[in-house]
Amino acid sequence: MVPAVPAASGFVVTAHGRVNLIGEHTDYNDGFVMPMAIEPAVRCTVRRRGDGLVRLRSAGHEGEAVVDPSRPLEPGRRDWARYPVGVLDGYAARWFAIPGRDVEIAADLPVGGGLSSSAALEVAVATAVETLSGRALDPVEKALLCQEAEHRFAGVPCGIMDQFAVTLARPGHALLLDCRSRAVTHVALADPSVAVAVIDSGVKHDLAAGEYARRRDECRRAADRLGVGSLRDVAASDWPARGAGLADDERKRVAHVVSENARVQSFAASVDCGDFVRAGRIMVESHWSLSRDYEVSCPEIDALVAAANRVPGVLGCRMTGGGFGGGAAALLRADTATAALERIVADYHTATGRVARGFVTAPCGGPEVAPAAPAG
After folding, report:
1. How far apart are CA 153 and CA 6, in angstroms?
2. CA distance 179 to 278
């Protein structure tokens, strides 16, 4: 269903970021992930203009992008606007009418913080196009269009998790996503006794991109040697016996992926039945598998997670994202969540000298459209 275009003064589209609760480095192995949408978001304010052009301006970046959606749009931009321009191109290729508009972009979602700011921007622009056109793609097709925009126009070979999480989220739920079949199961996470915290370590190591590519190559080689299409096809029951012929690094990578897929399923089942103590333990197991078998953590993140897991009221904490810095996600008891987060930040600073920042969030829904305030 497409919202009617609200108010002559324009409208605002809000698309939330996401945090991945569990299921790290399983997406490109056709496995399972479990993200949820978070409260920080990207907001696009859309207002009329009379010349048929789309002008994009971002509060967080210098300059603006002016594009003519009636003409072919080509990849090649190197600035922030390549993400929304890629989305406009995708809709134009599907014969959506895109009238001239001013689009002002603002966010309280940190760029580069591992919380899917690019996917939120893509989905916000996609929702604006659908609102203006009076018709909409199926949500899965919409998410895939945004993924395609990131591939073609930003040159980022991302998986499907970010765009699916931002597009298909429901309030009070996380998404159990099968990255092979693209099937989504919404798992209720609205129990008032628990909350989720997202913590930025303040660290990002330069080796992240190269090591990420190396992990993908190691998984691909291991799958080839095991004679499977992807590591998703390796069963936990027969994995140890099958790993004898692999190199040590490959065997460790497979051990993580196989066990992580099982953990995602167990975590989802635990959340679904309200066993949050068990869910927290599974998050801790996930972290140390990422640190020791997949080797994508770093001393600072290990220190952050260790500090968090010692704090009363924390049920479980793990790194989230690609690794070598970035952040962590924690499951906490809601009545002490704010105090626990403050203690985590303080203990992390004591251990590392680093300043972490975090926030507590409830699971949010997909993109929202509302009337804009009058200009001026």
Report:
1. 30
2. 24
Taking the C-alpha atoms of residue 124 and residue 135, their distance in angstroms, rounded to an integer, is 15
Catalytic residue among 27, 30, 102, 162: 162
Q: H/E/C letters for each residue in 35-99?
A: EEEEEEEEEEEEEECCCCCEEEEECCCCCEEEECCCCCCCCCCCCCCHHHHHHHHHHHHCCCCCC
- Asked if 336 and 363 count as a contact pair (C-beta separation under 8 A), the reply is no
Q: Is 249 annotated as catalytic?
A: no
d(CA 269, CA 263): 10
Separation of alpha carbons 362 and 376, rounded Å:
33
Q: What is the pLDDT of residue 375?
A: 74
- Give Rg (Cα) of the chain: 21
Distance, CA of 160 to CA of 219 (rounded, Å): 18
pTM: 0.93
Strand partners, 14: 43, 368
pLDDT digits (tens, 9 = 90+) for 102-158: 999 999 987 766 788 899 999 999 999 999 999 999 999 999 999 999 999 988 888
Sequence-distant (≥ 6) Cβ neighbours of residue 362 within 8 angstroms: 39, 171, 172, 190, 195, 196
Closest CA to 333 of 308, 364, 356, 298: 308
